[in-house]
Amino acid sequence: MLRIDDIYTSGEYAHNNPTWGEKDAPWKADKVKSMLERLDLRPEALCDIGCGTGAVLRCMREWYPAADLVGYELSPQAIALGSGAASGVTLIQGGAMDFPETFEVALCLDVMEHVEDYIGFVRSIRQKASIIIFHIPLDMSVQTVARMRPLVRSRETVGHLHYFSRETALATLKLAGYEVVAEKFTTGSPDFRGSLLRKRAGAFCRSTAARISPATAARVLGGFSLLVAARAKPGPSS
Please, are residues 139 and 150 in contact by the beta-carbon 8 Å criterion? Predict the structure, then answer.
């Protein structure tokens, strides 16, 4: 039986997504940096779970030159692509919980929607760091459910197995044993830009609606993600 992880280790995902989303890396790193500043954190040890080529970590090296930056990634193709450019960043092929090291901050950016047992995965990484920053695409919206094709396309092209709204994303973290420290809607990723008039019109509608109510804009229009800083709830592990 084909395991979902095989898509990332066999080269299938690399074939369909040869750049591994590197164009998004500066944008994602900037959002993470803003969240860390909001929490008054300047980590000396930070890891990225499902780091791809390590591009986000390379961006963050500029801001945290003395920090220990480690990326975990299942795909040997991503590791090979990123290793030559990963100055000051350690890339490790394998799952984060296969290694004993812990960190002040862990990143889990656009990962949980790819994992077959997403609740088990999110629960398993709780102790990897004191604070874990998630970035979760909010694929579930009124317009995407009405049209349906965007949800199917996200599965076919970028491997999204699960579709979240803000409410279901936060409920997942709660069920997995987290408490939310801070959250913020994000939009404006290069994924949402383009030369097509339709994409630009969509971006304009999202940004206009977001000025009134980001939550309503995300729920109705889609095209948003949720940046969440969370930590393991105190008390017995579930």
Answer: yes
What is 6-139+161-187+223-232's CATH superfamily?
Vaccinia Virus protein VP39 (3.40.50.150)
The pair of structure tokens assigned to 117 is 């047992």
Token pair for residue 2?
């084909």
The answer to whether 107 and 56 are in contact (CB under 8 A) is yes
Burial of 156 (0-12, 13-18, 19+ CB in 10 A): exposed
Can you tell me the distance from the alpha carbon of 51 to that of 56, in angstroms, rounded to the nearest whole number? 7
Q: Quick one: tokens of 190?
A: 């290069």
Distance from the Cα of residue 107 to its chain's centroid: 7
Size (the chain), residues: 238
The domain ranges of the chain are 6-139+161-187+223-232
Q: Where are the beta strands (DSSP E) in 124-211?
A: 129-137, 178-186
Q: How many CB atoms lie within 10 A of CB 171?
A: 12
Closest to 22 measured CA to CA, from 68, 63, 67, 71: 71
Identify the helix (H) or strand (E) that includes residue 109. Answer: strand 103-109
Q: pLDDT tens for residues 91-131? A: 999 999 999 999 999 999 999 999 999 999 999 999 999 99
The whole-number pLDDT of residue 184 equals: 96
Q: How far is it, in rounded angstroms, from Cα 233 to Cα 178?
A: 5
The 10 Å Cβ neighbour count of residue 212 is 8
